[in-house]
Design brief:
With 217 residues, the chain is an alpha+beta fold. The protein has two domains: 14-54; 70-215, Glucose Permease (Domain IIA) (Distorted Sandwich). Helices cover 18% and strands 31% of the residues. It is built from two helices and 13 strands. The strands form three sheets. It has an eight-stranded antiparallel β-sheet with strand order 9-5-6-7-11-3-2-12, with no helix packed on it. It has a three-stranded antiparallel β-sheet with strand order 4-10-8, with no helix packed on it. Strands 1-13 form a two-stranded antiparallel ribbon. It is elongated and about 105 Å long.
């Protein structure tokens, strides 16, 4: 008899493996789960990295402490519009870009007078000119050392449904103090009264706690 082995004897076919149907089913099940959940895992990791990026702290405590009546941009981003009324009321609308920090900072040094949440709808875009009474928003008011009022309004819209305030009424704040956040690309409006003209223009880049909006004179 010949001791040579045939090629077929060296190949293990599924039928020769005990319980091969069960192993095959479990293997296909694992491959299916991997194909289904790996994209979701990658998406979740990407979202985590993005949230970490837009919530990074840009203003270091005590780095930009302001003791005067100057009003500063409360967020990194762009100045959308500037309005100067005849009675001296100045209204500045700001919005962060997609990769700017979405944290808000106190626009002026002073005492927090009032925090009011106005219930409304999130189905509108804050920049579409919809009446304020229809939009969800939070109004935060400061009183400066000389008694001037500065208001910051955080607006919600279709994309920005998470609006948060870190402050409490009666607290003394500096410009470097975190005031809140609005995800994603929440519109911020700063209103104050000043007789001096503003030196900012729509489309201008602004940096939180560094770009001067004006003086409460």
């Amino acid at each position: 008899m010949s001791s040579e082995k045939k090629f077929s004897d060296l190949v293990i076919t599924p039928s020769t493996v005990p319980g091969w149907p069960v192993k095959a089913c479990v293997g296909l099940f694992c491959i299916g789960l991997l194909a289904l959940y790996l994209p979701f895992g990658v998406l979740g990791l990407g979202l985590l990295l993005y949230i970490s990026l837009i919530l990074r702290v840009m203003v270091q405590p005590e780095s930009y402490i302001r003791l005067d009546e100057t009003v500063y941009a409360p967020v990194d981003g762009r100045i959308i519009s500037v309005d100067e009324s005849s009675d001296g009321t100045k209204t500045v609308i700001l919005q962060p870009d997609w990769f700017d920090s979405h944290l808000h900072y106190a626009p002026v040094a002073g005492q927090l007078e009032d925090i009011t949440w106005v219930d409304g709808s999130f189905k509108f875009k804050a920049l579409d000119g919809v009446p304020n009474d229809l939009c969800a928003r939070r109004e935060i008011t400061w009183r400066t050392k000389k008694g001037h009022l500065v208001e910051m309004v955080q607006f919600g819209d279709k994309w920005c449904r998470l609006i948060q305030c870190f402050l409490r009424e009666g607290r003394q704040t500096m410009v470097s103090d975190p005031a809140g956040l609005a995800l994603f690309r929440g519109v911020v409006i700063v209103t104050f009264i000043s007789s001096a003209p503003l030196n900012i223009v729509p489309g201008q880049r602004c940096l939180a706690a560094q770009t001067q909006l004006g003086q409460t004179l």
